[in-house]
Amino acid sequence: MRVPIAHELPREEVRRRLHERSHEIASFVPGGMADVTTAWPNEDLMTLAVRAMGQGIDGRIIIEDHQVVFEVDLPLALSFVEPMVAGAIRDKGQKLLAKK
User: Fold this and answer.
1) In what order do the strands lie in the sheet containing 2-6?
2) What is the CATH number of the domain that holds 41?
3) Structural domain count of the chain
4) Residue 43: predicted pLDDT
5) Alpha-carbon distance 54 to 23, whole Å?
6) pTM (predicted TM-score)
7) Distance of alpha carbon 22 from its chain centroid, rounded?
8) pLDDT value, residue 48
9) How far is Cα 62 from Cα 47, in angstroms, rounded to an integer?
10) 21: domain range?
11) What is the largest CA-CA distance in the chain?
12) Is residue 82 classed as helix, strand or coil in its secondary structure?
């Protein structure tokens, strides 16, 4: 699943905000019991491993000039919740990029 979120920020600012707020991602998972691991394989790619309730979902956040693309490897068994997950990613992703 791919969820693009438009932005008008310089890439450096997007990187800074994602670095500073990546710890907030766990709170986006309902139930508050998620364990989120992030890594930066390169300056425009953050990888995510989300583990909650015995399930794991991997994903990536790709920083582009005018958008940030959230890619989530949603298991086939959870494909029925894709619209709900995409909506939550849009909402929470915009909050990650918002100025504090």
Assistant:
1) 2-6, 67-73, 55-63, 45-52, 35-42
2) 3.30.310
3) 1
4) 96
5) 20
6) 0.87
7) 9
8) 92
9) 9
10) 2-97
11) 38
12) helix
The mean pLDDT values, 10 residues at a time, for the chain of 100 residues are 95 94 80 83 95 85 96 87 87 86
* One-letter identity of residue 84: M
Amino acid making up residue 78? L
The residue length of the chain stands at 100
Please give the pLDDT value at position 76. 86
Instruction: Please tell me the predicted confidence (pLDDT) of residue 4.
Output: 97
Q: Which pair of tokens denotes residue 68?
A: 């940030």
Q: What does R_g of the chain's alpha carbons equal in angstroms?
A: 13
Residue with tokens 């450096």: 12
User: What's the rounded Cα separation, in Å, for the pair 27 and 52?
Assistant: 11
The token pair that represents 31 in the structure block? 């139930």
Q: Is 89 within 8 Å of 70 (Cβ atoms)? A: yes
Structure tokens belonging to residue 60? 């990536």
**pLDDT for 53:** 74
